[in-house]
Amino acid sequence: MQETKSKAFDIAWVREQFPSLKLQVNGQAAAFLDGPAGTQVPKQVMDAVQNYFLDANANTYGAFLTSRRNDEMIHSARAAMADFFNCDAHEVAFGQNMTTNTFALARAIGRELKAGDEIVVTTLDHDANVAPWRALEEKGVVIRQVDIREEDCTLDLDDLRRKINAKTKVVAVGYASNIVGTINPVAEITRLAHAAGALMFIDAVHYAPHGLIDVKALDCDFLVCSPYKFFGPHMGTLYGKREHLEKFKPYKVRPATNTSPECWETGTQVQELIAGIGAAVDYIAELGRHCDPVVKSRREALQAAYCATREYETGLLTRLIAGLQTIPGMRIFGITDAKRFDERCATLSFRLGDYNPTEIATFLGERGIFTWDGNFYALNLSERLGVEQHGGVLRVGLVHYNTADEVDRLLGALHEFVAK
Q: Which helix (H) or strand (E) holds 408?
């Protein structure tokens, strides 16, 4: 059944969109299994960045052609991200990266907080959704950290419920774990936060390449993600409910506009990369139209794309986990039961006996198989799992341009590593 579904996904068309997938390493095709640290980009993103320099390279709001083109491009990219989030274009702000966006937002919210107010974070999260909130401890804000269920690396929702109370002002939770792939029930957590009168902040950086985001359905107050994780350039994007973006006051220079969302975009933006963001969203929409030619709007095309890629990636994940479980000394972190794969995305981490993950990653890299080792800035989780002092874990991140052959190459190389 799964093989039939995978064949229906036009992987040949997908891979043709990504020129970098033709890279060779020591005579072998590169297998980019490093998506969680940043995906490859399709040609139309590269073209958008180049065309910006050719046709629209100017600063904003000038009384001449290239400046007007630049303004139009930013407007277009903001509209694309609005379709991506399912929100209004005035609720989208660009920034250097998710971490910078989150620090800026946390500082602005912190202006309104007092000693004794509480913020809830989690052990499962990347530190970019922990450290910006912990920085507010300097003014007496109390940080409550939610634990995990170690056996499957999911959030302990009972612990979360205990830690949300009348003093809670912000609940900051990741949509999906960048180490173990766990997808958190963020809609349910949003309801818990709002019931306590708290704001809900979602880090969707790791979820964005794997699943459709709908901020209206979630009813979250803020959500951040990074286009370079979903086939775009290295920047960050922020969604905020309009009333919140207008209520909270960001730190900025005096001449900068007070109008939202531009007031949240500190300094001159990397405008050529904003062009690439719009193109990245349009690539996903184009994939959706390729999968389902009857879709009409860009939002419908995005829905079709994620429906297809989710099914395809789950097939690769099933193949990968089944293969890893045949390797002696293998310890996979997170959900491994195929019946629960709707609770995770196609990212997993493991340890292999007492081997240092860097040694394994180096061995694989020499064979053209790109994986990551370490803690990936999810330091709290690495410490909680007891692997930080041993070099962390080895992480494999599958996205929709990966293939079953690449999964098999990885499995074969790991068997070779163990046997050496």
A: helix 404-419
